[in-house]
Specification:
The complex is a heterodimer. By secondary structure, chain A is mainly β. Chain A has strands at residues 4-5, 10-14, 19-25, 32-38, 45-51, 56-59, 62-67, 72-77, 86-93, 102-104, 108-113. Chain A contains no helices and eleven strands. Chain A starts with a strand and ends with a strand. Chain B has strands at residues 4-7, 10-13, 19-25, 32-38, 42-49, 56-57, 65-67, 75-78, 87-94, 101-103, 107-111. The chains are: A mainly beta, B mainly beta.
Chain lengths: 114, 112
């Protein structure tokens, strides 16, 4: 069963607008959530994270929101830039007790158009 | 991807052949991880090592073996490759916090 789900395989946004990428999870033991960005032929790059004790974390143009009751998180990118075009993966961790292993979603391909 | 290196970058195998994927990290971390990425599947954990001398199975361990040679190196071995193991393989090690993982550049493996 897929414990971390990204239901939108792709998203297209105009440059300067907001990009919103969504992620849902089912495992209540997850206590830390991360977003990774991946360009073709490269490894995933860590982007931003949030602890389950928070509901928002911001880093420059990137903000992650967590709604624990709905088991939902989202990544907001504003303003979107052409260089943001990549695949974005949501990931979740059970923390040290779970070996700090990451469970990934299937990814969302973001395309930022001029 | 700084600090995590993988070799080779590309490999083509025939069914039944064996090979070892190498991973090394220079960040002096205890934990290391092997993932595979397939289209539409995201990244899935194959094996991980919480410390030198220990290894544990992840979500998709069948057909693979691992060795934590020392704190720096963690290798993944395919004893008898199958077409279903065609994938991109990533090695990872913790980043600034134990929750974050930094990934190597990947090994693209094709089994014919």
């Amino acid at each position: 069963d897929q414990q971390v789900k990204q239901n939108s395989p792709s998203l297209s946004v105009q440059e300067g607008r907001i990009s919103i990428l969504n992620c849902d999870y089912t495992n209540s033991m997850f206590d830390y959530f991360l977003w990774y960005k991946k360009y073709p032929a490269e490894g995933p790059t860590f982007l931003i994270s949030i602890s389950s004790i928070k509901d928002k974390n911001e880093d420059g143009r990137f903000t992650v929101f967590l709604n624990k009751s709905a088991k939902h998180l989202s990544l907001h990118i504003v303003p979107s830039q052409p260089g943001d075009s990549a695949v974005y993966f949501c990931a979740a961790s059970e923390g040290t007790g779970g070996g700090n292993k990451l469970t990934f979603g299937t990814g969302t391909q973001l395309k930022v158009e001029l | 991807n700084a600090g995590v290196t993988q070799t080779p970058k590309f490999q083509v195998l025939k069914t039944g052949q064996s090979m070892t994927l190498q991973c090394a990290q220079d960040m002096n971390h205890n934990s290391m991880y092997w993932y595979r990425q397939d289209p539409g599947m995201g990244l899935r954990l194959i094996y991980y090592s919480a410390s030198e001398g220990t290894t544990d199975k992840g979500e998709v361990p069948n057909g693979y073996n691992v060795s934590r040679l020392n704190k720096r190196e963690f290798s993944l071995r395919l004893e008898s490759a199958a077409p279903s193991q065609t994938s991109v393989y990533f090695c990872a090690s913790p980043g600034q916090s134990s929750y974050e993982q930094y990934f190597g550049p990947g090994t693209r493996l094709t089994v014919t």
